[in-house]
Specification:
The chain is α+β, with helices and mostly antiparallel strands. The chain contains 21 helices and 25 strands. The strands form 7 sheets. The chain has a 7-stranded antiparallel sheet with strand order 4-3-5-2-11-10-12. A 6-stranded antiparallel sheet has the order 6-7-8-9-13-14. Helix 6 crosses helix 7 (156-164). The protein is globular and about 70 Å long. The two termini are 23 Å apart. The active site is at 14 (nucleophile). Residues 14-240 form the Glutamine amidotransferase type-2 domain. Pathway: Purine metabolism; IMP biosynthesis via de novo pathway; N(1)-(5-phospho-D-ribosyl)glycinamide from 5-phospho-alpha-D-ribose 1-diphosphate: step 1/2.
Length: 479
C-alpha cells in the first residue's frame, strides 16, 4: 500500500491480541493476528513470557510473512503472549515502531500493544523529553512506556493506572508483566474495541483467557466470547484469575461508529451488534432513502457487500458481483510513472463485464474520502459498458479528520468538506450520488434517530463533534 493509496480510504491503526495460561500461546496469538489482519497490514509483532523470560519477534509485512516460519515460532515459548498488527497513523513504517513495545524496568520487563491514538502524545512527549526520557520510536505508544517508568507508585498496576490517567485519546491496550500478568484496558469512552474470551476446558482453572480487538479473532482459535471490555475498564488476568477495576468511573461510551461501516470484519460482533447485520440494515435504509431505477446492485468489495445485499433485498433490484476483487494484492510495488500508478485500482478490482454491459448500475461503497478511487472505479464500470452509474454510500459524508486512530487526510483534502453533493457527483462521474442519512445510519444500528444513537457513538469524522479533547491540535503540536 502506498501513501497515496492510504489517503484514498480510511484506515484503522491496528489490532491487538493477548492470551493467558494456554500452551503454545504465541501460536494462538499468531492465529489471532491473522484474523485481525484487516486492521493493519504494515507490520506484526509478538511478545511471549515463559514464566522467567520474555521473548519477542516482530517485523514488517503481513502476519504470514513475519510468523510463517516454524523456526520463528519456536523462539517464542510460554503460556502467555500478546501481539499486534500495525497500520501507522503516528510514526513511520520502521521496525523500531513495530509493536508490542518492550522495556526492562527495575521491577522487570513490560510489553505493551496499543490500538488507537493519543490526542496529547506530543504534549506529553515534550514534557517527558525535558525530564530526560529518551524515545527510541516515533509512535505515541512509547509514551506509556515512559509514564510507567517515571511513576512514583510502587506496584506495576498502580504505575499503569497512573500512566493512563495522564493520557487523552482513543485506545485499547494490552500489557504483559511478570507479576500482574495480562492487563487489558479501553479508554474511558470506549472508542476503540476490545473483547474478552475464554478457551474451552479452562473454566475450572485460571487459564485460557483471551483479549482481542474483535470477536473474529476469538473464533479462529476456538475461544468463547465472554463479553466486551467496558469503556474505562481495566481487567487484570494472572494466576489469581481475572479481576476488574474502574478507575475512571462510568463516563458512558462513544464507540467508533465507523467500526460498523467499514473497519471491523463482517463476522465480528461488537458491543452486542453483529457487524454483518448492521451493514445489511444500512443498505436497506439507503434503498428506502435514495431509491433509483436500475438493473443491478453492485458492491464495491469487500465492505460494500453486506450493504449491497440489503439494498438489493429492500429495492427488489438484483444483486450481482459486478466488480471482482483480487485478494492477493499486497503493497503496490511498481509506480514509476503516473500511467502505471493509475493502473493500481485494476490490480485490486476488475470489472465483470458480462454483468455490467448495457446495465443501469447502482454501486454501493462504504465511504468517499478524496474521491480519486471512486472516480477510477466508476470509470472502470463505465468502460465495461454500464449505461448509467449511481453511487450509494453507506456512511454520511466524511467532512472532518479523525484524531482517534483512523488515518484520514486533513480536512482540506476531504472531498465532502470542499464539494457540494452535486459537485462530488460530477467529480467522480456518476449519474447520481447519495449518502445514508444520520438518522438512517442510527436506525440501522437499532436507534430511533441520531439524537438517540449519537450518545453511544463517536461520529466525529462526519459531524466534527469530537468527544475527547484534541490537546496537541489545540496547542499546534505534532507527535
Amino acid at each position: 500500500m502506498t501513501q497515496s493509496d492510504s489517503l484514498n480510504r480510511p484506515y484503522e491503526e491496528c489490532g491487538v491480541f493477548g492470551v493467558w495460561g494456554v500452551p503454545d500461546a504465541s501460536a494462538l496469538t499468531a492465529l489471532g493476528l491473522h484474523a485481525l489482519q484487516h486492521r493493519g497490514q504494515e507490520a506484526a509483532g509478538i511478545v511471549s513470557f515463559d514464566g522467567e523470560r520474555f521473548h519477542q519477534h516482530k517485523g514488517l509485512g503481513l502476519v504470514g510473512d513475519v510468523f510463517g516460519d516454524s523456526r520463528v515460532m519456536a523462539t517464542l515459548p510460554g503460556t502467555v503472549a500478546i501481539g499486534h498488527n500495525r497500520y501507522a497513523t503516528t510514526g513511520g513504517t520502521h521496525v523500531r515502531n513495530v509493536q508490542p513495545l518492550y522495556a526492562d524496568y527495575e521491577f522487570g520487563g513490560l510489553a505493551v500493544a496499543h490500538n488507537g491514538n493519543l490526542t496529547n502524545s506530543a504534549t506529553l512527549k515534550q514534557a517527558l523529553v525535558k525530564r530526560g526520557c529518551i524515545f527510541h520510536s516515533s509512535t505515541d505508544t512509547e509514551v506509556f512506556i515512559h509514564l510507567i517508568a517515571i511513576s512514583l507508585y510502587t506496584t506495576v498496576l498502580d504505575r499503569f493506572i497512573d500512566a493512563v490517567k495522564q493520557v487523552k485519546g482513543a485506545y485499547s491496550l494490552i500489557t504483559l508483566t511478570p507479576d500482574d500478568g495480562l492487563i487489558g484496558m479501553r479508554d474511558p469512552l470506549g472508542v476503540r474495541p476490545l473483547v474478552l474470551g475464554r478457551m474451552p476446558g479452562h473454566e475450572q482453572d485460571n487459564g485460557g483467557w483471551v483479549l482481542a480487538s474483535e470477536t473474529c479473532a476469538l473464533d479462529i482459535i476456538g475461544a468463547d466470547y465472554v463479553r466486551d471490555i467496558e469503556p474505562g475498564e481495566i481487567v487484570v488476568i494472572n494466576n489469581d484469575g481475572l479481576r476488574s477495576l474502574r478507575p475512571f468511573g462510568d463516563q458512558g461510551g462513544r464507540f467508533c461508529v465507523f467500526e460498523y461501516i467499514y473497519f471491523a470484519r463482517p463476522d465480528s460482533v461488537l458491543e452486542g451488534q453483529p457487524v454483518y447485520e448492521a451493514r445489511r440494515q444500512i443498505g436497506c435504509e439507503l434503498a428506502r432513502e435514495s431509491a433509483v431505477e436500475a438493473d443491478v446492485v453492485v458492491p464495491v468489495p469487500d465492505s460494500g457487500v453486506p450493504s449491497a445485499i440489503g439494498y438489493a433485498a429492500e429495492s427488489g433490484i438484483p444483486f450481482e458481483l459486478g466488480i471482482i476483487r483480487n485478494h492477493y494484492v499486497g503493497r503496490t510495488f511498481i509506480e514509476p510513472t503516473d500511467q502505471i500508478r493509475n493502473l493500481g485500482v485494476k490490480m485490486k478490482h476488475s470489472a465483470n463485464r458480462p454483468v455490467l454491459a448495457g446495465k443501469r448500475v447502482i454501486l454501493v461503497d462504504d465511504s468517499i474520502v478524496r474521491g480519486t478511487t471512486s472516480r477510477k472505479i466508476v470509470d472502470m464500470v463505465r468502460a465495461a459498458g454500464a449505461t448509467e452509474v449511481h453511487m450509494r454510500i453507506t456512511s454520511p459524508p466524511t467532512k472532518h479528520a479523525c484524531f482517534y486512530g483512523i488515518d484520514t487526510p486533513e480536512e482540506s483534502k476531504l472531498m465532502a468538506a470542499t464539494h457540494t453533493l452535486e459537485e462530488m457527483a460530477r467529480a467522480i462521474g456518476v449519474d447520481s450520488l447519495a449518502f445514508v442519512s444520520f438518522d438512517g445510519l442510527y436506525r440501522a444500528l437499532g436507534h430511533a434517530n441520531r439524537a438517540e444513537g449519537a450518545r453511544r457513538y463517536c461520529d466525529a469524522c462526519f459531524t466534527g463533534d469530537y468527544p475527547i479533547q484534541l490537546v496537541d491540535k489545540e496547542g499546534n503540536l505534532v507527535a
